[in-house]
Amino acid sequence: MRALFAGLVVVLGLVVFAISFTFFGERDQQQAQQFGVPFELVDHNGNQITDAAFRGQPTAIFFGFTRCPEICPTTVFELEAWFAELGEDGENIDAYFITVDPERDTPEALEFYLTSITDRVVGITGDPAAVRAMVDGFSVYYKRVELDDGDYTMDHTASVFLLDSDGDFRKSIAYGERMDTAVAKLRDLADT
After folding, report:
1. CA-CA distance, 20 to 117, in Å (whole number)?
2. Sign of the CA dihedral running 46, 52, 56, 60
3. What is the mean pLDDT of residues 172-192?
């Protein structure tokens, strides 16, 4: 009798596991497919860019602004170093810097900012309302912070988001993450 009871407990446990795995797996897949929103903006060369740019190849995206004192320039330099470390293994990964300060980050400002550091990262900006809708669609935190001198800065999420070739979220690289870990994540991404 105990053996039968133990067998039923194991079978019941497996059934519960299978149901929960299926439910949560489908939910995670649906959430991944809902990452981001359609958008029509411009790149740092003034060319139209849409959400289609995030599909067809692996993609790394970062949200920031050109007047950022530390996090953004550090991340752009790190992206350049990570891609240099990857060499040919990372050639199929596209990278984008999406502004959270479209009022000041014109295509010209982004072009000057990015190309002085790297040729691997494309800037994205545009109409402020359209940029905000796009950033909100990625559930990225950003907030304008007024300064005492009448100027302002922007608080924002500091992670690099990694999207597979379908445009689905795979993982992120945290600000300050070790280079070997970041490069391993990008190498893994390159195969998606």
Report:
1. 47
2. positive
3. 95
